[in-house]
Specification:
Low-confidence stretches: 1-5, 528-533
Number of helices: 22
CATH topology of the largest domain: DNA Cyclobutane Dipyrimidine Photolyase, subunit A, domain 3
Largest sheet: 5 strands, parallel
Radius of gyration: 24 Å
Number of domains: 3
Mean pLDDT: 95
Structural class: mainly alpha
Shape: globular
Strand content: 5-15%
Distance between the termini: 43 Å
CATH superfamily of the largest domain: DNA Cyclobutane Dipyrimidine Photolyase, subunit A, domain 3
Number of strands: 7
Order of helices and strands: EEHHEHEHEHHEEHHHHHHHHHHHHHHHH
Length: 533
């Protein structure tokens, strides 16, 4: 078995511990609320690598490695600061395998008077650690996560009394409150949203002179983690030969600067575009560092706004990027914490199919899916349109149970923490919450993918066809989705145009589409049928 280097807990631990300060794998922020008033003479920081956090959903190797490596780098930073640290590695002989059990070990060893923790990003983890605290009769000082622009209380107050929650109103409220992209009381440029100036395709020529992604060669710590993951999680999906994510604060700052300088100016224009074999394009690749808290949301937004103010990047690109962080990121967090735990069980469309097995291998003849899943397994990454309008769209049209889609997204992406991943997947991607988060199902035929990418060129399927041997499965399933859910969708005014187009299909056309859709589902969900067909 590969043996990794042990990280010594070198700073002497206090003999009498006031607070055990809990730091989780997505809280790697030296300025976090839990660490603000720490006293090295009487407090101890506690961190633990445990197998359960990689197996409660079947996590990909890239995701496991980025969390473990970033945790170890942060632990080293704490040691440099002289903070007493109790750190458990994954392969420690006495590792109990769960956060709850490891916290119990620490409590029995140190006998602290209390526990301190920044609010976690996962409801399951919060309940687990609260239970441990209660069982041991210890007060748990649960502090706001100051990494964000708003609190959950702020969002709850915003949501109170509203018949519908919509991103745009929350986003505007936060823009005004924080003075971001504002000219006095008005938005810079006279508009809140510049989508009309964004979201172009690359055209036939494809992307030109795209700056290379900012990647980091694994240092000794990361190499140890890669060896550990390849040993302990050998059967998990993906590979680590291309691992290059930022795993320290210093690396994350380099990645931020590179994005602002090299890719932000064209981010908005091409934020929805896709191209075969081009994983990185003009996206920021910062969501992982943001969600691990290696970067502060405020500093990222400030850097983008400064790029506009200095003339380096156009307003449309800057506003579109800032909206993803100041708007969308804060919005999904509010949805998550004000609706858990029941939100996890929502399934408004009563979708019951299992996720096709090839989501774990990329073994499909649909070119767009093969490309998106292939890069996901290789890098633990796909940009938002690949997630929403390729892998997510296909699962929605196929009728996959949203909880199964959620488990896949949470497991395979390096930036996946449940507070941000679940609403994006179940709510926006799968319409599982019935419109709480997004105003309509994000459904489209294969023509959308053809318009925004080159995937359809050379693919065996024709996005213009809904029936026949060459019919694009996205197009077949799109019309079948509208047919199947027509009664429900008629209640949604934003679906009026799509349903108007559906009304042009006569009875025989609908029957043919539904028949082909059913055959496609059988072939994808039953491996034996897939081989025969």
């Amino acid at each position: 078995m590969t043996k990794t280097n042990k990280l010594p807990n070198t700073q002497p631990l206090p003999t009498k511990v006031r607070n055990l300060v809990i730091v989780l794998g997505d809280q790697l922020d030296a300025q976090s609320s839990a660490l603000q008033d720490i006293d090295p003479a009487q407090d101890v920081v506690w961190m633990a690598e445990v197998a359960q956090e990689s197996t409660h959903v079947w996590s990909g190797k890239q995701r496991i490695a980025v969390f473990l490596s970033a945790m170890r780098h942060f632990a080293d930073d704490l040691r440099v600061q002289g903070l007493p640290l109790l750190y458990t590695q994954l392969d420690d002989a006495r590792n109990a395998g769960t956060l709850a059990a490891e916290l119990e070990h620490a409590i029995k060893q140190l006998r602290p008077a209390g526990l301190v923790m920044t609010a976690p990003g996962d409801w399951r983890v919060l309940q687990s650690l609260r239970t441990v605290a209660a069982q041991h009769g210890l007060p748990l000082d649960l502090r706001d996560d100051t990494h964000f622009f708003s609190t959950i209380r702020d969002f709850a107050a915003h949501a109170k009394g509203r018949k519908q929650l919509r991103l745009e109103y929350w986003y505007r409220e936060l823009r005004v409150k924080n003075g971001i992209l504002m000219d006095g009381k008005e938005p810079v440029g006279g508009h809140w949203n510049f989508d009309a100036d964004n979201r172009e395709s690359f055209g036939k020529a494809g992307p030109q002179n795209v700056p290379p992604p900012t990647r980091f060669a694994p240092d000794a710590t990361t190499q140890d983690v890669i060896a550990l993951v390849n040993t302990h999680f050998a059967s998990h999906p993906g590979t680590l030969h291309s691992f290059g994510w930022p795993v320290s604060r210093a690396q994350a700052l380099v990645a931020l600067q590179a994005f602002i300088e090299q890719r932000l100016p064209l981010f908005g224009k091409y934020e929805d575009a896709m191209w075969s074999g081009e994983a990185w394009l003009y996206h920021s690749h910062l969501s992982c560092a943001l969600n691990l808290k290696l970067l502060q949301a405020r500093e990222v937004v400030q850097a983008a706004e400064d790029a506009y103010r200095t003339g380096h990047a156009p307003l449309a690109a800057v506003e579109g990027f800032i909206r993803q962080i100041l708007g969308w990121r804060e919005y999904v967090r509010g949805i998550y914490w004000t609706h858990m735990p029941e939100y996890l069980e929502r399934n408004a469309l009563n979708a019951q199919a299992e996720l096709p097995a090839w989501y774990w291998t990329g073994d499909t003849d649909m070119a767009c899916l093969k490309d998106a899943i292939g890069q996901t397994l290789e890098h633990g990454y796909a940009h938002h349109i690949q997630r929403l309008m390729v892998t997510g769209l296909y699962a929605l049209l196929l009728g996959v149970k949203p909880q199964a889609v959620h488990a896949w997204y949470l497991g395979v992406y390096v930036d996946a923490v449940e507070w941000v991943e679940l609403p994006n997947t179940l709510g926006m991607g799968q319409f599982g919450d019935g419109g709480l988060m997004a105003s309509k199902p994000y459904v489209a035929s294969g023509k959308y993918i053809q318009r925004m990418s080159n995937h359809c060129k050379g693919c065996r399927y024709d996005p213009a066809l809904s029936t026949g041997e060459a019919a694009c499965p996205f197009t077949t399933l799109y019309w079948d989705f509208l047919i199947h859910h027509e009664a429900l969708l008629k209640k949604n005014p934003r679906m009026a145009m799509q349903l108007k187009n559906l009304a042009r299909l006569d009875g025989p056309a609908r029957e043919a589409i539904s028949g082909q859709g059913a055959a496609h589902r059988r072939a994808q969900l039953d491996p034996s049928m897939r081989e025969r067909e």
